[in-house]
Automatic annotation (TrEMBL), chain A:
A Pfam family recorded for this sequence: DsrE
Similarity comment text for this entry: Belongs to the DsrF/TusC family.
Protein name as annotated: Sulfurtransferase complex subunit TusC
Cross-referenced Gene3D superfamilies: DsrEFH-like
Signal peptide coordinates: none
PANTHER family cross-referenced by the UniProt entry: PROTEIN TUSC
Lineage of source species: Bacteria, Pseudomonadati, Pseudomonadota, Gammaproteobacteria, Oceanospirillales
Organism: Vreelandella lutescens
Domain of life: Bacteria
TrEMBL record, chain B:
UniProt-annotated location(s): Cytoplasm
Chief site of localization: cytoplasm
Coiled-coil spans in chain: none
Name recorded for this polypeptide: Sulfurtransferase TusD
Keyword Transferase belongs to the record: yes
Lineage: Bacteria, Pseudomonadati, Pseudomonadota, Gammaproteobacteria, Oceanospirillales
From TrEMBL, chain C:
UniProt xrefs under SUPFAM superfamilies: DsrEFH-like (SSF75169)
Pfam families: DsrH
Coiled coil: none
Protein name, per record: Sulfurtransferase complex subunit TusB
Organism: Vreelandella lutescens
């Protein structure tokens, strides 16, 4: 499968601690709205954005989960998580939202290389 | 070759704006062009007219303006990221019922789509965060 | 692909960068990443075959690490070299 002109957005920051996660997801949504094929790779703490039991944060702090739920509407259906990230955070894939694809650690170099546009958030 | 820069660090908080500015100047001195800089996340603070560093420190906003004036580099600021952090133009301040504004030309408030447009136009896109 | 790292060599950003390295990639260490000069055993120096690791000379000098650079196996580049690296690689990914 060719991934020419496809975009990979790497999410590396946890929800609530900063706005990096939300503003990274915004880039993914806008790119998808522009007709680009977008995949998301959740590395390290970024995977915490996918925990399905998340609830709203401190009063007034916007939750991330509704944005994750919205991704499908924008045809962003590739939610990739490396096995090493799950291992490092003692997480099981069953704790994450539906539709997550766990990828082997040794596929990461090829995954990053094959996308035309790669951005870290 | 045409370059685009994405700046996501705030001046006086992060080294990112300094690295980005030095890089932009080096790109130009090597005979390439810097088409534009897009300010996102904490990078939007680079546009604040109210930044007033001590005299022995670089005024980062002035440095970006000089880059624009001397080399035609566009200075785009993500409007959503800027408004929520209290950086806005006269027009946006009026629209949102604010008494003051702290962003004006050559900085332009624009949507995230502009970042994608810049990326597609340029041969290279480099993030400083 | 050119990877630009600006966080210390044992940071999460550095570890994540190393996990995505492929043959033929280059690494440029800028800002706090130049601290890797203090760690001769840093994984990144010998991360993969054909990975070229460069250090931004100005950032090493401003942090007092020029002498450390001379002892190591790093390739020092100035800002012109930084631009040259970005011209050589069509894809550039920053880790921060």
């Amino acid at each position: 499968m060719s991934h020419e002109h496809e975009r990979l957005v790497i999410i590396r920051h946890a929800p609530y601690s900063s706005n990096a996660l939300r503003e990274g997801l915004d880039v993914a949504l806008v790119a998808a709205a522009f007709g680009q094929t977008v995949s998301l790779l959740f590395l390290g703490q970024g995977v915490l954005a996918l925990l399905k039991e998340q609830v709203a944060g401190a009063p007034g702090q916007k939750a991330t989960l509704p944005t994750i739920d919205m991704l499908e509407m924008y045809d962003i259906d590739q939610l990739l998580v490396p096995q090493s990230t799950l291992d490092a955070l003692n997480l099981q894939v069953t704790q994450l939202v539906d539709g997550v694809t766990v990828v082997a650690n040794d596929t990461l170099p090829e995954l990053v290389q094959r996308h035309s546009y790669v951005m870290n958030f | 070759m045409e370059y685009g820069l994405l700046v996501m660090g705030a001046p006086y908080t992060s080294a990112a704006p300094h690295s980005a500015l030095r890089f932009a100047k080096a790109v130009i001195s090597r005979g390439h062009q810097v088409a534009g800089v897009f300010f996102y996340q904490e990078g939007i603070h680079n546009a604040s007219m109210l930044m007033t560093p001590p005299q022995d420190e670089l005024n980062m906003r002035d440095a970006w303006i000089a880059l624009h004036q001397e080399h035609g580099v566009t200075l785009d600021v993500c409007i959503a990221a800027a408004l929520r952090r209290g950086v806005m133009s006269d027009a946006e301040a009026k629209r949102h019922g604010q008494v003051h504004f702290n962003l004006d030309a050559p900085f332009e408030l624009t949507g995230l789509g502009q970042l994608l447009t810049l990326e597609q136009r340029c041969d290279r896109m480099i993030t400083f965060a | 692909m050119l990877h630009i790292l600006n966080k210390p060599p044992h940071s999460e950003a550095a570890t994540q960068m190393l996990s995505t390295l492929a043959k033929g990639d280059s690494i440029l260490l800028i800002e706090d990443a130049v601290q890797a000069l203090l760690h001769a055993d840093w994984q990144g120096w010998n991360a993969a075959t054909d990975v070229n690791v460069c250090v931004l000379k100005e950032d090493a000098a401003s942090r007092g690490l020029s002498a450390a650079a001379l002892n190591g196996h790093a390739t020092l580049v100035d800002m012109e070299g930084f631009v040259e690296l970005t011209a050589q690689h069509t894809k550039i990914l920053s880790w921060y």
